[in-house]
Amino acid sequence: MLKTCSKCGVEKEGSDFGKEKRTKCGTQSRCKSCILEYSNQRRRDRKLEDPDYCLKVNESRLRWKRKNSSKSTLYNRGYRQRNPDKYSAHREVKAAVEKGLLVPLTCCQSCDSFGKTEGHHEDYSRPLDVVWLCVKCHKDLHRRLNETHKDTEAVCNVQYS
Question: What is the chain's pLDDT, residue by residue, as a tens digit (161 residues)?
């Protein structure tokens, strides 16, 4: 099913639109990428308008976590059980940084921007072999990896008659 986005005007597959029970076709009028772009811009604008915005968001997250501590604990436990190699690698990096054996770079190894970086593992079996990326580059990389993984799954799951 093809549908045209009301924001960008591009005709896209139905899976490119979020679900919406109140509409006749059951999907939102704007595509997921337009909604994401709008949400990111709104968040940036709110940060500029209200200097305490980040503090308010963090306080809200902490309140939710305190109120729903059992949900949070169950989620974290499930993540550790589903991803033992990832969890182990993250713990080893954290311990190495705390001991001073591994020093995080302050410059992204992808875009060369300065600021807070995150360690990215290309291979979880080599936990201290990390690439230091800014948050934006790290998210973009994982988004691309997830899309590639989904494409590979789609190719592998093709049923021939």
Answer: 789 999 999 999 988 999 988 988 889 999 999 999 999 899 888 888 887 888 888 899 899 989 999 998 999 999 999 999 999 999 999 999 999 999 999 899 999 888 889 999 999 999 999 999 999 999 999 888 888 766 554 444 444 33
State pTM to two decimals: 0.57
The reply to whether 136 falls in a domain is: no
Q: At which residue do the structure tokens 């337009």 appear? A: 34
Question: Which residue in this structure is represented by tokens 């190495």?
Answer: 96
The answer to the question of residue 35 being in a domain is yes
Question: Is residue 10 within 8 Å of residue 4, measured between CB atoms?
Answer: yes
Question: Considering its fold, how many domains does the chain have in total?
Answer: 1
Which CATH number belongs to the domain containing residue 30 in this structure? 3.30.60
| Residue ranges in 14-107 assigned as alpha helix (H) | 32-49, 53-67, 69-82, 84-99
For strand 130-134 and strand 11-13, is the pairing parallel, antiparallel, or unpaired?
Answer: unpaired
